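Justification of computing resources. Each target in the renewal requires a structure prediction run like the one illustrated here; the chain below, 403 residues long, is used simply to show the kind of job we budget for.
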Amino acid sequence: MKKLEIWQAVFALTALMCAFEQPKQENTAERYATEGQAALTAGHYEDAEKAYAKLRVLQPSVAEVHANLGLIYFKQGKFEDAVHSLRKALKLKPTLTKSDNLLGMSLSELGRYAEALPSLQNCLRRAAEPEIKRMCGLELLRAYTGLKRDKNAVEVALELNRLYPDDPEILYQTGKIYGNFAFLTMWRLAQVAPHSAWRHLAAGEAQESQGSHDQAIQEYREVLRLEPSRPGMHYRIGRTLLSRYWQRHSPEDPAEAQKEFELELQSFPSNANAAYELGELQRRARHTDEAEKYFRQALEYYPGFAEAHLGLAAVLMEKKETEQALVHAQKAVAANPENEVGWYRLAQIQKALGNTTAEEKAIAEYQRLHDEATRQKGFEPAGSPFSSPSEVTKQTADPSSDH
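Resulting structure tokens:
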């Protein structure tokens, strides 16, 4: 974990000087204090340690000497020594809050998590300096994780994300916490209900996200065996069959998927996703009337369904109903203005209508979004075992894939 880049001059030299009684001793102590503080500020920790160790011999009852020595030990990774010095400082002066913060971090670095908790909890709640609060929070994540207090770790992770939403280290560390918590939760589900529909559903989603389509379908069918009337399961099987088709190009998969979507709509006609998938399958097969029917069914239950508006716009263009196609393309863009396909299809329709200015505007926006997506493509994160699969087949701006 990243070490502190703070507290180079935590304690003022005047706090040391007030304790010096004899002139000769005062001069010697002042020299060690000055040398030690200069070395600490410059990051010369060995020299700082030597100076403060001599100062500790001269003035063992001055809390700030022990506090600064504890900071030096921490910087050097000598956490056991840091704990000893910081506890001595706090015994002499309990109000040294930053020493208490550093004590908690040192204990955490040593794996003494239970001892570290009180100091780290107080630091995260009360520290005024953002960097100190940040480091205490990261150490508190480590402590709670080490103690297997996963719920507390998630709570701290949420707080750190709120306080430091754009901090790369925070995002990395909290992401690990969330992933670990999800894994443990699913593991617990498998332990307490290994034969339940919920366990098979979780396993199916995990398999689907990893591209293991055969295993995912098997798990989903097991859910249906246990709960035949469960909403969405025929749809989920259909989506997985389509995903398998795009991976393997098995000619029977689209037909099987169509049957699953139809079974879904028989029991749950309000499933707009299933209606949309049927519409898209019919559109690609050039069955425009059937495609229009299903797209309209999807929009009946989900009026803001951008992909369904785009699918319907394509069908209406095919049927030469260009004015109506324009209405749905505009609704798609309004519902999701960041979708490049919406602007591409809108440009096609404006061109067909002879609206040159509107066509150029739509093409320019499509190109901007397309270029941005191309730049970001290499930075897309890999799927998590527990991430949600893509909900519907996306529309495309590639004419060759439409049929």
